[in-house]
Structure formats: C-alpha cells, structure tokens
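Please check the following for our workbook:

***
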Amino acid sequence: MLKKIFALCAAAVMILGCAQKAPVLTKSGLDPEKFKAERDGAPVALYTLSNKAGMEVCVTNFGGRIVSAMVPDRNGEFKDVELGFDNIHDYFPENNATDFGATIGRYANRIANGKITVEGVEYQLPQNNYGHCLHGGPNGWQYKVAEVVEADGSHIKLRFDSPDGDANFPGHVTACVTYTLTEDNAIDIRYEATTDKTTVINMTNHSYFNLAGDPANHCVEDDELYINASCFTPVDDTFMTTGEIAPVEGTPMDFREPKLVGKEIGADYDQLHNGKGYDHNWVLDTAGDDTVVAAELYCPETGIAMKLYTDEPGVQVYAGNFLDGTATGKKGVVYNFRHAICLETQKYPDTPNKPDWPSALLHPGETYTAHCVFAFSVR
C-alpha cells in the first residue's frame, strides 16, 4: 500500500513539474521566454498589451517592434495581422535584416546620396540603398535596444538614446515611442524627441500588415485601400523622390475612392515601374488633423478594416514588393511577394534636401512630436 502511495505521489510530482515547465503563451502563440536576451549589454524582452475586447498586441524593446496584433474578424475569431518572428534572435540583423514592426529613426525613408546639410555643415550618412540612406542606415534604431521607461497592461513607453554622430547624424537625440492599446481596438503610437544640436528627425512604425491573418496564402492585392490624398511624390528608378508633387488624378496612384490594391498595380505607368509597384509617399489632404482618416485598408475575406490617423503630412504605402520568400516568420510561414502592406506615417522622403517641403529640422529647446493611430474594426 505504501509503495502505491509513494508511486502516486511521485507521478503527481512529475506531472506538476511538467506543468510548471510548460510555456505560458500569448494569445498570438508567442513564448515570452524566446524573447529574453541580452544585446549590446542591455536586456531584451516581450511585453504584452491587452484590452477588455480581447485584442492583444505584443511588443519587444529590441527596435521598439510590434511583434503581433490579435484582432477580431467579422465572426469574432482573432487573427494575427502583423508579420514578424516568434523569437528574438530572428530579429537580429545578422539573421534577418528586416524592419518588421519596427520603430524607425533617426530618419525614416530615404535621404538622397546620404547627404544632409544642417546649419551650413554637410554630413555624409550611411549609403545602404541605391546610394541613399534608408531608415537611418544599416544600424538604425530598428536594430537598437530601447530602454523600457513605462510598461503596464495597456501601454509601453520606450526610449532610444542616440549620441552625437550616431550614423554621422548631428546632435545627441533622446527619443521616445509610446504604444497604447485602447479599449476600442486601436494601436495609438506617439513619438517625441529632443536634441542638444540642430538635427533632422523623422520617426515612423514599419508594421507589415496582412488583415486576413494568413500571410501564407493571402495577397494584399485582394485588399481594398483608400488614401486621403490628392497628390503624391514621384520617385526615380532608385526610389528617390524627384522633388515634384504630382496630382493622383487620372493615374493608378488615385485611391481617393477605395479600390483593390491589385486593380492597377500592374499598369504600364512609369511610377509603378520605378517603385516595382506601390512604394510611394502620398501627400495627405488631412492638413495635420489626426481626427480625420488618412487612409483605410479593408480585407473582404475577414471583414477586418484598419483606419489610419496621423498628424504627419505624408504616408508611405509599400505593398510588399520586395518580400521574396527569404524570410520565414511566425508559425513557419514563408513571407512571399506582396503578402503584406505597410502604411508608414512620415515627413516626405528626402525632406532635408527639399526646403520647400514640411521641415524635418529639430532645434535644441524644441520637442519633436508625431502621432499615428491604427484603428481596427469589422464590416
């Protein structure tokens, strides 16, 4: 009898031990233990935001990245609409040099030939994209560990400390990004930055969205897009803005009435040739009013709609033209051509070299701010 009791107790201990070792996963299926690491002497982790409606957003402080976003579809089934990886090591640039979900800085998008002139001094920045500086260069903030300033169940505030001369940009910049998951299923993103020397700043979020929650099979050409913009900034064949602000009227760039992303993406039009599809900055008609819809993406398959609000003058719409199957993301899904789309709120590309465009300069004593909201709903 004692032997039986002993055996039962031993079995119970073993079962309890196994249960204790079982990972506690997020709603999106992520294991937070796989995001614990140290990078450049700083700790990295995964943080989970949730609301009463059941939506969940996971963020890592490596690059200030959104890792997953669980959103309900028209049937109440939750879909992960964010491309990314299921462990922190795949985000490290030596493994995958991607911008999935990242906070971009100092300067989002491209700067021509990597050159800026600030207060009469010319600075040569890294040239990492057709001879231009893209997203702050190959060691931009998307590959830095941000300090966690605040974190609770609904928001996280991250701080980047960028010394004078970081990627050869002038000025010691302290920048923060705050992600808040609201009770009405919106990801509210606020940016702020200060400097001790005049510099340029342009922060954005580089989320890759697939509103079907099925990046293995769903192409964003089948989604409907609206952009509240009468003009856009054309690019040359190196993706650099020409300095022109051109009307969308009568071109495939006109999304003032919602249409499928794929309806005209293959049209014989020079800008679509230059951008390999849609990879352009639209000049918003919202006049900096972040209560007016700047853009809206809608997936007929799931009924999920995402409205974009911003106080920035432009939005870069990138239709995943360079996704080529070389990155394998969450759940072993291979990310293929045009299976995600990015809506990046911003100053116009190469603004520092185009003085007629809204300024990206930040002076000592000033605070840079920007606001972006991804608001989810269903139809």
